[in-house]
Amino acid sequence: MGAERAARCNRMPKLLVNGKAHDADVDEATPLLWVLRDTLGLTGSKFGCGVAACGACSVLVDGAPTRTCVTPLAAVLGKAITTIEGAASRAPWPALRAAWIAEQVPQCGYCQSGMLIASLALLEANPRPSDGEIDAAITNICRCGTYPRVRRAIHRASASLAAPGK
Are strands 58-61 and 64-67 parallel, antiparallel or unpaired? Predict the structure, then answer.
């Protein structure tokens, strides 16, 4: 490796995505969504609106749901990022996944990775949320209008997590 390439590699932003360290040879102003999709090949987070309104692009950054379409790479350096591809490593995931299937939440499916990420963050922070707390936490847009199913699935997952032996 030439001296110029070595110097550039030492300046590359370091990302921690789904428990693995990555070098990102991109400008630090680049939105995280495009780094995840185009540089790392993690396409579960979707581009929806580009203005942080819909939530299709959401990931967890240090456990908090974050809209990646407007989050510059510089804002997440040194933080733990969990995409939908890495969600299975989170404790509530099996219960949430089973509830999502049981309640038949997805229709078109475009919003689902963002909805699941927001729901995962909610259950990690509040394992027994009320309807009002669910409504406040799940601000993602679903074009198919599956909000009642999302709420039922979160309650189902919550009940499963509270069950003995969980």
Answer: antiparallel
Q: Which of 11-20, 24-33, 109-118 has the lowest mean pLDDT?
A: 11-20
Structure tokens at 161: 């997590």
What is the three-class DSSP state of 81?
Answer: strand
Mean pLDDT of all residues in 8-20: 76
Please give the domain boundaries of the chain with CATH numbers for all domains: 3-86 (3.10.20.30), 90-162 (1.10.150.120)
Which candidate, 118, 125, 141, places its Cα nearest to that of 153? 118
Residue 132 to residue 23: CA distance in whole angstroms: 40
- pLDDT, tens digit (0-9, with 9 covering 90-100), for 120-142: 999 999 999 999 999 999 999 99
Beta bridge partners of 31: 72
Sheet holding 80-82, edge to edge: 20-23, 14-17, 80-82, 58-61, 64-67
CA–CA separation, 35 vs 100, rounded Å?
Answer: 28
